[in-house]
Amino acid sequence: MERIAPKTVGADLLDGVPRQRSVLPAPPPARPLAVPRARPWLLLPTPARTPFTVGYAALLAATSLLAALAPPSLVYALYQGSSTDVAHLVRSPAVVLLTSALWIAGGLLSPYALAFVLVLTALERRIGAARAACVFLAGHVLATLATEVPVGLAVLAGHLPGTSLHRLDYGISFGVAASTGALAGLLRPWLRWPLLAGTAALLLNDLLAYTDPMTNWGHLIALTIGVSTWPVIRRRVAVETP
User: What does the pLDDT look like over 65-115, one tens digit per residue?
Assistant: First the structure.
C-alpha cells in the first residue's frame, strides 16, 4: 500500500520563486482598548434601581417644604414632638426614633440633603434597598442612643441640669454618616480612604469647634457604625456578584 505523506505548510509553493506568500493563518486583529465612559446619571436615584432612596427623598422633600411654609410655632411643635431627647425616648422611644428621621436640619439647602442623595444612591445600588435602609437606621438609632443615654445618666448623677433631658434633637445626619462609612468599604482603595479620611476630618473639625459636642460625637459614632458593617455587606456583595 502506498503511503501518502501529510501535506506540510509551504509544500504547495514553487521552488525558486521568491517572495511567495505563506499559507500560515493570519493573526486576529487586535481589539481596541475599551475606554470607560463617564455616566454621571448613575449618581442620581431612580425608582427602579434605588426605590428606598427615591421614596425617602420624596418624604424628606415634603417635610422640608412643610417646614419652610408652615408657621414657625407649628414647625417648632413638630420638631419638639419628633425630638429624640431623653424625655421623649423614655416615653415613646420607637415613635421619636422614627419621626426624628423625617426632618433635615437646615432644610433642603443643608449639605446633609445632598450627601443623603449621593451616598444613599451609591450604597443602595451596591447592596439593595433593604440593606441600605438597615445601615441607615442602624446609624440613626444606635448613634442616637449612644449620645442620649449618657446624658440621662449624667442628669441622674447630678452632673448635668434637668434641662438637658429636653434637648432638641432631630434629623438624618447620623444615618447619612453611617451610610458614608458603609459605602467606603465597597469602593476601590483609591476612593475608599480619601472618602473616609475626608469625612472623618470634617466631623473632627466640627467636634473641635465645640458648638454642639454631643451631636458631633454622634456623627463620629455613626461613621464608626457604618465602618463596622464592612464584613457583612462585603460578604453579601461577594455572594451576589456572579
Answer: 999 999 999 999 999 999 999 999 999 999 999 999 999 988 888 899 999
pTM for the model: 0.82
- State the sign of the Cα–Cα–Cα–Cα dihedral 192, 197, 203, 207: positive
d(CA 124, CA 181): 13
The type of residue at 105 is A
Which residue bears the cell 470607560? 36
Cα separation, 232 vs 234, in Å, equals 6
Q: Distance between terminal CA atoms of the chain? A: 58
d(CA 242, CA 226): 25
Helix (H) or strand (E) holding 151: helix 129-156
Angle ∠(128,129,131) on CA atoms, nearest 5: 75
